[in-house]
Design goal:
- The complex is a heterodimer of chains A (132) and B (558).
- Chain A is 43% helix and 18% strand.
- With 132 residues, chain A is α/β, with parallel strands linked by helices.
- Chain A has a single domain, classed as Rossmann fold.
- In chain A, strand 1, helix 1 (19-30) and strand 2 (34-37) form a beta-alpha-beta unit.
- Chain B has 2 domains: 53-455, TIM Barrel (Alpha-Beta Barrel); 484-546, no CATH class.
- Chain B has an 8-stranded parallel beta sheet.
- Chain B has helices at residues 3-21, 53-57, 90-102, 115-118, 142-148, 168-181, 198-204, 211-228, 240-247, 249-269, 274-277, 291-312, 318-321, 341-355, 374-389, 404-426, 430-435, 438-455, 484-498, 501-516, 522-530, 535-546, and strands at residues 80-85, 108-111, 159-162, 191-193, 235-238, 281-285, 324-329, 359-362, 555-557.
- Classes of the chains: A alpha/beta (132), B alpha/beta (558).
- Chains A and B meet through helix 1, strand 2 and helix 3 of A and helix 4, helix 9, helix 18 and strand 9 of B.
Amino acid sequence: MNRKARILIGKVGLDGHDVGARVVARALADAGMEVIYTGLRQSTQHIVTAAVEEAVDVIGISILSGAHMALLADIIQSLKQIDSEDIPLVVGGIIPMEDIPMLKEMGVLEVFPPETPTQAIVEFFSGLVHGA
Amino acid sequence: MTIEKKLKKWEQQTLQNWLKENPETKKRYNTDVGIELERLYTPTNLDGEAFDYERDLGFPGEYPFTRGITPSMYRSNPFIVSVYSGFGTPRQSNQRYKKILEWGGVDEIAIAADLPTQMGYDSDHVMSKGEVGRVGVAIDSLRDMEILFEDIPLNRLKRVSFLGNSFGPIALALMIALGRKQGLQTSDFTINLQNDILKEYIARGTYIIPIRPAVRLATDVVGYCADNIPNWYPINICANHINAAGAGSTKATAFALANGMCYISDLLEKGYHIDAVAPLLTMFLDERADFFVSICNFRATRRIWARLMKENLKAKKPESMALKIYAYSHGGEAMLEPMNNTVRITLAALAYVFGGVQFLENASYDEVLGTPSENAAKIAARTQQILMHELGITNTVDPLGGSYFVESLTNQIEKEILKEFEQVEAKGGAIAAIESGYYKARISEGASKRQRAFESGERISVGVNKYRTESEIPSGAFRIDPSSEKEQVDQLVKVKKNRNNRTVRETLEFVREVAKSDGNIVAPILEAVTAYATIGEICGVLRDLFGEYQSTEYFRAR
């Protein structure tokens, strides 16, 4: 495979904490992937547009504010509108356990709660882009 | 035989023999700030030039204030017991505040505001969707403040805190206006604002307008208080968030000091004397990974502050040199087995008390899972009260002063802080360090280092990466009522309907005019909030005039 895997790491919602997003972005880059990090407080529409324009293989969303249900529903809806719901969508951050089944039903492929080892996240992304 | 020789002999004989049979569990005993600890500290660590009692410690209440800022510390002035609280609508939070006051012994309520409020968006703004009343209470206008403190006169508390980082002047104006509504003079009660915008660009992220005009607004708040309300605390210079983001507490303190110098030089340029503003400033210090580093950080920072004020800035008043410290106890809380966090937080708080803190808040054990439950918040406050009143912890001033270890580590941390501080100053100060990405780079390095230390097991979290028995993070964190967002938007509509919209327009125009000039922005904003202009409307004027800060974080790592 010649092309490097491309990953978009995006921050939606109004919270200003991106330590986790940056640590994950750095780890994925160290594992040989090309990582585009959007910076704080992107609109869901901006995330979807950037993902399509950059032709990324996976979208990773970090959210800590608690607004994950509404914002992820928006992202999935926007992806569907442009027939791009096949781009895998994964989420990390402060997500209560009881919300995870509902998020998966909505179309989120995987959820990484806090205290997930970085290596497990890297392996999951690698599996997604190389494994299938 | 001198003590050096005896020590050498002990090391070569007693110790070496012992270690042959009893090896130590680790090669190195490192702290989160990168200082490696020695096995034993003795008088040799404080020999000669290294330590001078009068120069380095002195007496409490006297320069350089290492041992504490008052002569009798907690015997005369118990530390302030503060509770950080707010969620949902002002009505819901008002109910919680009343319960908190029923607990007894709570001196301060710190208002936790939701993210739309902190970002200067009203609850009906498109960016506020899904965020209203989460992580804090929703505040749109003075009406919300009136409801939040209904039947709670502001002078019933020793202090009330409000973040107001990105909109300090609005936060100040809201508190003045609320006091008036309650029939109080500003001298009757005490307000503390965080109002530290510089660290938002570095670590916390709730910035709105570009750096320079934002610093001007922040120092307008300090200037207004120096002129009119010297009993309030208009700025709390934060190391806390910079450390939490990854910098480590020595770098975080150094960066916070550099940020503080930036505010001070802006105030001096505005014509204020150092002794008019320095006594109003406090620092929000933080260390959550090492008990002794925490104690020594507080002692060292007081000494550095005193010397900076006296020697560099030529302050004359002792109040300018005596640094008041605010702290929020965290102890590396975990989401697994969260009740254990109570112990971690207690120990972190104990270190702050040994370090000589003035204003203390404790995290709740379930705070890592979401907005604290009432019971968890009560335990947090009770923990502070137990530290104050039980077990004799607060009976003696600076009880660890003179310890070979504590004094050596205080000296070492002081040196490290000064080295980092001088590096930032040499690079052009705080604003240059933000713009060049210097701060961010140091923080990212630190965050990755911490993560590696945790994953390799070098840094232990009991029940998480050692002795782990649970696989799932417990659910059932406190949840806000999902109808809160709609309720708050309805309330906002009502406010906009009932106020005099012409007066609102005129006051907003006055805000714009003064913002364009170099006048102090507080008085016009006070008129606007009094007319029930919303935070979103006032920030809208500022956004329109100054633009929004563009973060340069769109990067590609390869």
